[in-house]
Structure formats: structure tokens, C-alpha cells
Design brief:
391 residues, mainly beta, 5-stranded mixed β-sheet, 1 helix
């Protein structure tokens, strides 16, 4: 891989890594310590064949568009319109409209399906559940993991789902029958994150063993077709955007892999990275770190465009997400609160106090409308919308 390093995300970051704070284990292990070591910058070009069209233009995808670039964050430059002055509560989903009840213990992850019609949850009770989030109906439960399930994701056509957990396994499931289609066992420690990629023909998984593995679903092989091992500590979060994979690690780095070009760019944030995601137009990266900060970075340069503070994230792994139109940033908090920021202004526009009774571990925004799902280690999964549905 051709590697480009960007040691600075924002003011106050340092070019020399320091030891990360210790992280306790309430719902997802991050790491006990950092494991130093040089990164091999002469990796061969990746062998994965990512037959994906290039990313859609900002006009096709909407959202931030060119306005996300450094020095161009304005409504006129392509950002979604922002309310001025007082922001109505109806602009973002802050009203609890339902709960998904059925897990026996904490819920580690919640994810909307590709269309937003269904939802997946992964729990400490070793199960994955498929829901109608609007009625609260549990459609199916998937059992097979030997320990807690840390993450789950659905394929683009909703026919399959993937899950990963503390049993070091990645499971591929048939949605309609509940049968296990494949079980990948290449990781040597807890699997923290899973995603579909390449039109759902590849599964990507990130682990406590410091690796990201790519699994080809078109073959019968149980071996990964690619292993990304640049991280020097636990990989906590991954996202996929076209032919690119974005990862976050406890070693304080976010890493952007261009799988088609065989290039790697690293950004150093000093503190452990707990959540990473692309903006909807793929021009920006949303990065959460274990110092109660969420940052918006320019994808091409790694420059910090905005910071979001006010929540508590000092010990645990929390999700931060962008709204369906990239207008808002949402994150859970360790005190059970749910925090909303205006993306461009960087100010908190709403704080839903005690949305959960414990750490808000996971959040998922609907792909095309203002609706939000949150999950907590208290076992509660909540659906948030702009207003109560009419009975």
C-alpha cells in the first residue's frame, strides 16, 4: 500500500503518539494498552477486486456536496439548508416513538436496513434480532454465536445479514430462513465491527486482534482474501464507502484504504478512535475519539472541518452518526443522554437527557428520512422521530 500520513486532525493534536488512556470493559473491549510497531508502507497492491462504480457526485447523492470541503462549508456550496436562529424540535428526531423489547441483557448494536424498513440488533444474549422498528415486532431471532454479539449489518438487498462477536467468529445468515450460510473464523480475538462491501459480495470485519479482514462471499473459502494489519491496537469501528474502507483503532488512528488504487492514508487523533463513518456524499469523515470529541474531517486532506463537544465519551465505545441529509451529527453519551449538533455551525441544538438509563452504545440513522434508533447496555432500544405517529 502507498501510505500517506496526516498526523494532525485539529488544534492540540500531536505528531508523536502517546499512550492512550486505559479503557474499561462495560460493553465492548477496546484495549488494555497500545502495542507499538512500525507500519509496513511497502505492502503489495490489494488483491480484492472491487467492481464498484465510482462514488456518485454530490448532485446525485445530495447531502454535503462540495460544501464539506475545507474553507467551503456553507449552504450555498451544496450543504443541506440549515435552520437559522431557533431550530424547531421537528428538524431532527428527538421524540421517542417506540421501543424494541426482547433482548435478555445489554444491546451492543442497532442498525437500520438498507431501505430503513427493518432494523437489526445485536445483544449480549448471543443473539441477533430482526425487527419492524415502527411496530416493535420482532420478526426473527438468529442464534449461533457462542458469546455476546457486538455488531450486525444487512446486505443491500436485505436477503442476508452478517454478525460478529466475542466468540471471534463472523456469521453470514439467510434472513428469511434464519440458517447460517457461512462462518468465518480467521480472527484470533473479539470481532468488534462488521460491514458488507462491494455490492454485498464481500464482508469486512474489524477485531480486537488489530486486523481488518475481507471475506469473499462468492467462494466457498473460509480464509480471508485480504487482511489489513496496519493497526497497532484493537480495531473498533469500520465503514465502507464505494471502493474505500474506513477504520478506527485504539492506537489513535483512523485509516482510509482505497481498495481499488491500493493506497492508505492515516490520520492521527492522539486519543483512541471509537467510531468512524463516511458522510453520504463520501467527501467527509466523521471520527469519534475517547476524549469526548467528535470531528468532521476532509476526506482528501484529513483537515479538521468542525468539532462537536458536550457529550461524555471517556471510557466506552459509542457510535456517532450523521443524519440522512448530513445536516446533523448525533451521538450517545456515557451518562445516558442523546446529543444533537448542527453540522456546519458545530453547536449542540438538542440534548435528550436520560434517553437511556445507561451508556448509549449504538445509534443508527434512517437512510432517507429523519428517524433514529438508539441502543444501550441497559437493554433498551428506542425509535426516535420528529413527531408521534398518528394513531
Amino acid at each position: 500500500l502507498k501510505k500517506t500520513a496526516h498526523p494532525r486532525h485539529s488544534r492540540g493534536t500531536q505528531s508523536t503518539p502517546k499512550a492512550a488512556p486505559s479503557v474499561s470493559e462495560p460493553h465492548r473491549p477496546l484495549s488494555d494498552s497500545l502495542h507499538g510497531g512500525p507500519i509496513d508502507s511497502e505492502r503489495l497492491t490489494l488483491s480484492v477486486q472491487w467492481g464498484i462504480p465510482t462514488q456518485a457526485s454530490s448532485k446525485q447523492r445530495g447531502g454535503l456536496g462540495g460544501g464539506c470541503r475545507a474553507g467551503g462549508m456553507s449552504d450555498e456550496a451544496g450543504c443541506a439548508p440549515r435552520p437559522k436562529g431557533h431550530i424547531s424540535k421537528a428538524a431532527y428526531p428527538s421524540i421517542e416513538c417506540g421501543r424494541l423489547e426482547g433482548h435478555d441483557g445489554g444491546v451492543m448494536a442497532v442498525r437500520f436496513s438498507a431501505t430503513g424498513a427493518y432494523a437489526l440488533t445485536a445483544g449480549r444474549d448471543k443473539t441477533v434480532k430482526l425487527w419492524n422498528p415502527y411496530t416493535g415486532l420482532c420478526i426473527r431471532t438468529y442464534k449461533g454465536h457462542g458469546r455476546e454479539v457486538n455488531d450486525a449489518a444487512g446486505s443491500k438487498d436485505n436477503s442476508r445479514l452478517v454478525s460478529g462477536g466475542a466468540d471471534r467468529s463472523v456469521f453470514l445468515w439467510d434472513v428469511s430462513t434464519g440458517m447460517t450460510l457461512n462462518r468465518f473464523r480467521g480472527h484470533t480475538s473479539v470481532v468488534n465491527a462488521v460491514m458488507f462491501a462491494a455490492e454485498s459480495t464481500v464482508v469486512v470485519s474489524g477485531s480486537y486482534d488489530k486486523t481488518v479482514m475481507c471475506w469473499d462471499l462468492r467462494s466457498n473459502s473460509h480464509e480471508p482474501i485480504q487482511t489489513l494489519d496496519e493497526a497497532t491496537d484493537s480495531v473498533t469501528s469500520i465503514d465502507v464507502g464505494g471502493p474505500a474502507i474506513l477504520t478506527g483503532s485504539v492506537d489513535g488512528h483512523s485509516r482510509l484504504y482505497d481498495m481499488r488504487m491500493g493506497k492508505l492514508r492515516e490520520d492521527f487523533a492522539k486519543d483512541p478512535v471509537t467510531s468512524v463513518s463516511f458522510s453520504h456524499d463520501h467527501n467527509c469523515l466523521l471520527i469519534s475519539t475517547l476524549n469526548s470529541t467528535v470531528r468532521l474531517l476532509d476526506r482528501d486532506t484529513g483537515e479538521s472541518l468542525a468539532e462537536y463537544n458536550g457529550h461524555t465519551n471517556a471510557e466506552f465505545k459509542l457510535d456517532s452518526v450523521l443524519s440522512h441529509n448530513d445536516a446533523y451529527v448525533v451521538s450517545g453519551s456515557e451518562d445516558g443522554d442523546l446529543c444533537y449538533w448542527a453540522l456546519v455551525e458545530g453547536r449542540m441544538v438538542h440534548r435528550e437527557r436520560k434517553a437511556h438509563s445507561a451508556v448509549v452504545a449504538s445509534a443508527s440513522y434512517h437512510p432517507s428520512k429523519p428517524a433514529l434508533l438508539t441502543a444501550s447496555v441497559d437493554g433498551q432500544v428506542s425509535l426516535w422521530q420528529c413527531e408521534k405517529p398518528k394513531s
